[in-house]
Amino acid sequence: MSQAKWNLIVDVANCTNCNNCTLAVQDEHVGNSFAGYAAEMPKHGHRWIDIKRRERGQGTMTDVAYLPTMCQHCDDAPCIAAAKDDAIKKRADGIVVIDPDKSKGQKQIVDACPYGAIFWNDELDIPQHWIFDAHLLDAGWTEPRCVDVCPTGALRSLKVDDGAMQKVSQEEGLEPLRPDLDTKPRVHYKNLWRYAKCFVGGTVSSERDGLVDCVEGARVVLSQDGKPVAETTTDGYGDFKFDQLDADSGAYTIEITADGLAAERREATLGESINLGEIRLGK
After folding, report:
1. What confidence tens digit (pLDDT) does each residue in 102-118 have?
2. CA distance 134 to 114
């Protein structure tokens, strides 16, 4: 029978930046030491769970996404490779723990983490990170505190074998934070595109009898290199949006048609998300 291991699922679409998870970690570790797991967390300067913020778009078409980040508890962890004297161990349940005694003076452990999730405690001269609340799980808790306090369901923990986790990942469209690193993290992200991808959008209007109004149901086609990439129709406010596009993905063409109105065409070069603003269709 396969070994059950801990995993964390982060749903970016559900994170509202309430910071309950961050505060729960601070409440647990500031002023408290847990032998064999973690020394006391500094009151200032450390955010073992840190929520990143990204604003996309401009003007009337903007959105904000929040990305909880933390130790990824990688199966192929660069910090373990950098550590000396067995200062870091990968437990059988998948959790990575930095030994607060053996890691003393080993600042290279901080530098080894490509996610920036390991912090240096100047006072104690040790590296520290979010330990998945291993001390609580070992004491019988069924989930870490950050999951327990999350009011929106943005964080969810699962203890399952790798086969079952792979199935969950496929069914829910989960992905790693940085797939290019290939560290085999045990933190999985859902709706990561909300933070990592870009959009092209705009508002379609027309003028009839001196009145400007939104155009609902206009056909909008997004093309690149002469080939259609996606198609949509404008909503009741005349808005359209093509999302989940790669940043810095180059030039796009947007073609807009509506019954009884002249077609319009726009060119856009996508670096970050773009709001094309109002696009007026003539007669």
Report:
1. 999 999 999 999 999 99
2. 22
